[in-house]
Amino acid sequence: MGTTPEFGLNRFDWTSTESFVADVRRAEELGFGYALIPRNPLSRPDPYMQLAVTAERTSRIRLGLLLDNPVLHHPATSASSIATLDEISAGRALLTYGIGDTAVRWLGLRPARVAELEKATVLAKRLLMGEEVEIGAVRPARLQHARPVPVWIAAGGPKTIEMAARVADGVFLRVGRHPDNLRAAMARIRRGAMAAGRNPVDIGIGLIFHTVASDDPAETRAIARSMAAGYYEYSPALFEIPGLRWNGPPVEALKRRVYPDFHHAPDLAASGKLVDFLDDETADSFSLFGTAQDIAGQLQRAIEITGRADIVVPHPVPMPKPGEPVARVLRSAPPGADYKTWFASEVMPLL
After folding, report:
1. pLDDT tens by residue, 116-148
2. What is the pTM assigned to this prediction?
3. How many other β-carbons are positioned within 10 Å of the β-carbon of residue 253?
C-alpha cells in the first residue's frame, strides 16, 4: 500500500447508465482513484452492470462496491460478479462487504451478524483465489473464472473491525474522526491481525467521512448532529470510547420519526434538530465540515492519528443532486462546479 492516499467517491449521477459513466469519467479526469457504488436494489441500478459498462470507457480509476452484503445473495454470486468486472477492467476491481444495513432493512430483512459477515468474506476470498471450498454441496465449490480481487470490509463497531483485520484485505473505517475512536480502531486492527498471524501493515486502511456540503453554519451544525446520531444508532461504542454523551430520548424512539435512518434522512437538517441535545463536541466528532482548508486539516489530523490511509472517501451530505453546483465558496474551482470538482480543486491539492 502507498503512503499517499487515493481518493474515492461513492456518490454519482445514477439517473441513467450513460450519466453514471460520464460522471465517473469526469472523476477520473479530476484525479479520483476509486469509483464506488453502494448496493441497494430499491434505490440504485445494478452496480455490477453499471461498473462493467464504465470499465470499457475508463482506463485508470478503480471500480468497485462500497458496499455489497451477504444478505441479498450468496457470496459466490458477488465473487462471480466482481471477478467478471475485474476481467473487463483489466484488474481494477474492488469488492467491499458490509452487514447490509439500509439496503436490507428496506426489504424487511435482518443485517448480517459479525460471524455471518466473516464467513461470507472468507468464502468470497477463497473463491476469488481459485480454491476449492467445501460448502456442503455434492462436491466442493470452485469459481471457474477466479481472479485475485481484493475483498475489504466496511466496519464501525469494535468487534467488526477486529474481525475484518483477521480475514479481509482491507478495512474501511466508519468511526468518524474523534482521535479516541480512530486510535481504538487502529488498535483493534492490530489485535485482529496479530490474532490471525497477519502483519497489520499488510491490511489496507480506508477512511470514510461524511463531508457536510454546506456553507451555512446553522445547517452545517444540524447535519453534523444528524451524522453523529447515525453513528450512535449504528454503534453506541463510538460514543462510549471517547466519552461522548447521549442525553436525549432513546435512539429507537427517535428513529420512528426519521426514515430510513439518521444518515439517510431526506432532510438531514430537520433530522439533526431532533437531536439538538447533542453538544458541539459530539457534533464535531464524526463529520468533515467548514472551508476547504478546514476539511484538509481535519483529514490530515485523522491520517496522522491512524498512521496511514490508503483510500479516503469524503462522502458528501446531503447527497448532491446530479449537476447541481456545490453550496461552497469557490476559489480555484470554476463557477457552478459540482461536489467532485470542488473537492478535487479545493481540498485535494492541500493534502
Report:
1. 999 999 999 999 999 999 988 889 999 999 999
2. 0.95
3. 9
